[in-house]
């Protein structure tokens, strides 16, 4: 029985810390593309070579399994990934699982039966998605984890942002405004590895201040499936438990920040304490422009979608892939490409999200830009 590619081998370290890795031979002895010219006859699906894929339909078929389209960013990911894949001449099939693990697994089974050459997966549940990797690999299909890591699985590649840095940017911005006081942390979904990385980043920065007694975390809770509703009820609880005496709020993304801000508004506290979010959602950028939120973290989705599509096609062709990091997923050191997130506050909205066309000036400010 054929087995999927089990590991990557770094070949040589390049300048700037990038590493060239290639799809190594599997136990069936398929060629290592380090010594074989790319796009010749590198196997990538059971019983097929790259050549036969091209003969079959002339196109690499990419399956993109998304956990959700709930947040605005994922709709950008969907559209930008499709555009990037198609610009590279690939056929792109996309399915979104509505935050349901069983649904995501069965959608992936469908894509495998539709003959995808490569799977790109944003897991709803970091652990449960290991099943997806096993299924793909036993069909000879490589798996690229998109934005969210898949835990305890032999994934072939991870492309995301530096998610720990996201949390550090949030904490640095809020700590500068509130060097002492009571903080609330509203986390993301416990099932999403990113939520853990964001939180780790926040505490990398805050821990020394907590140890010194300058900062106290008075409430710290995950938000089920990242919903604003869950964040709203958590924030209500945080306010109730602390008699409304809270000095700062860090929320794992803008959607949960929005829910938490609603709870602040119920107590007449909206705009009165610094709030951090993430994703640079339009609603959050508008809140920042209007003073209801202090900052967000912008992740240029186009860079992610373009990079992931490019590397997905390369993986499908058995070509070399350059990475810049390794992340332990509990099973292997996953070759990873991590892009840089950017802190956005009132002072740089124009130079970041508007300059990039992530949001239009009109959408952010309406007709009149405030001074
Ligand atoms: C995270 C992602 C965030 C946010 C969240 C909710 O994994 O990195 O950008 O959108 O999921 O879906």
Describe the structure.
There is one protein chain. The protein folds into two domains: 10-161 and 300-339, 3-Layer(aba) Sandwich (Rossmann fold), CATH 3.40.50; 164-278, Rossmann fold (3-Layer(aba) Sandwich), CATH 3.40.50.2300. The protein has helices spanning 50-57, 72-87, 101-113, 130-138, 163-177, 193-212, 228-241, 254-266, 282-290, 301-317, 350-354, 361-365, and strands at residues 8-13, 19-23, 43-45, 48-49, 61-66, 91-96, 118-121, 142-146, 157-161, 181-186, 215-221, 248-251, 275-276, 295-298, 321-323, 325-328, 333-339, 342-345. Helix content is 39%, strand content 22%. The longest helix has 20 residues, at 193-212. Strand 3 (43-45) and strand 4 (48-49) form a beta hairpin. With 371 residues, it is α/β, with parallel strands linked by helices. Bound molecules: beta-D-galactopyranose. Beta-D-galactopyranose (GAL) is lined by residues 68, 71, 73, 147-148, 188, 192, 194, 226, 253, 279. Beta-D-galactopyranose is lined by residues 68, 71, 73, 147-148, 188, 192, 194, 226, 253, 279.
| Secondary-structure element series | EEEEHEHEHEHEEHEHEHEHEHEHEEEEHH
Note the beta-strand portion: 15-25%
State the domain count.
2
Q: In total, how many beta strands?
A: 18
Class from secondary-structure proportions = alpha/beta
Corresponding CATH architecture of the largest domain = 3-Layer(aba) Sandwich
Runs in which pLDDT lies below 50 for 5 or more consecutive residues are 1-17, 20-52
The number of helices is 12
Within the CATH hierarchy, at the fold level, what is the topology of the largest domain? Rossmann fold
Q: Class of the largest domain, according to the CATH hierarchy?
A: Alpha Beta
Question: What would the average pLDDT be, to the nearest integer?
Answer: 88
Distance between the termini: 67 Å
- Largest sheet data: 7 strands, mixed
Helix residue percentage: 25-40%
CATH superfamily of the largest domain: Response regulator
Task: Trace the largest sheet across and list its strands.
Answer: 6-5-7-8-9-17-16
Ligand inventory reads: beta-D-galactopyranose
Shape designation: globular
Radius of gyration: 22 Å
């Amino acid at each position: 029985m054929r087995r999927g590619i089990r590991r990557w081998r770094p070949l040589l370290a390049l300048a700037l810390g990038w590493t060239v890795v290639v799809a190594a031979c599997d136990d069936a002895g398929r060629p290592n593309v380090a010594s074989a010219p790319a796009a010749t006859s590198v196997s990538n699906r059971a019983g097929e070579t790259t050549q036969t894929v091209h003969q079959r339909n002339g196109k690499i078929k990419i399956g993109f399994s998304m956990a959700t389209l709930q947040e605005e960013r994922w709709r950008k990911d969907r559209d930008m990934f499709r555009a990037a894949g198609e610009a590279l001449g690939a056929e792109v099939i996309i399915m979104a699982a509505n935050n349901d693990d069983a649904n995501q697994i069965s959608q992936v089974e469908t894509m495998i039966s539709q003959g995808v050459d490569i799977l790109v997966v944003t897991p709803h549940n970091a652990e449960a998605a290991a099943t997806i990797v096993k299924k793909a690999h036993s069909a000879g299909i490589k798996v690229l984890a998109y934005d969210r890591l898949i835990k305890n699985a032999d994934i072939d590649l991870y492309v995301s942002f530096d998610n720990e840095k996201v949390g550090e940017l949030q904490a640095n911005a809020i700590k500068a405004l509130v060097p002492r006081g009571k903080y609330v942390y509203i986390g993301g979904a416990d099932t999403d590895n990113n939520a853990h990385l964001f939180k780790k980043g926040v505490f990398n920065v805050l821990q020394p201040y907590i140890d010194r007694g300058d900062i106290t975390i008075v409430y710290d809770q995950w938000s089920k499936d990242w919903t604003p509703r869950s964040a709203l009820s958590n924030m209500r609880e945080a306010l109730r438990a602390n008699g409304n005496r809270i000095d700062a709020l860090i929320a794992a993304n803008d959607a949960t920040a929005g829910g938490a801000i609603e709870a602040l508004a119920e107590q007449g506290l909206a705009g009165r304490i610094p709030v951090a979010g993430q994703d640079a959602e339009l609603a959050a950028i508008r809140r920042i422009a209007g003073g209801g939120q202090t900052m967000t973290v912008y992740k240029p989705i186009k860079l992610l979608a373009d990079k992931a599509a490019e590397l997905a096609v390369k993986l499908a062709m058995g070509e070399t892939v350059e990475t810049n990091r390794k992340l332990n997923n509990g099973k292997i050191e996953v070759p990873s490409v991590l892009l840089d997130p950017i802190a956005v506050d009132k002072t740089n909205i124009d130079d970041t999200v508007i300059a990039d066309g992530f949001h239009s000036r009109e959408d952010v400010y309406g007709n009149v830009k405030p001074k």
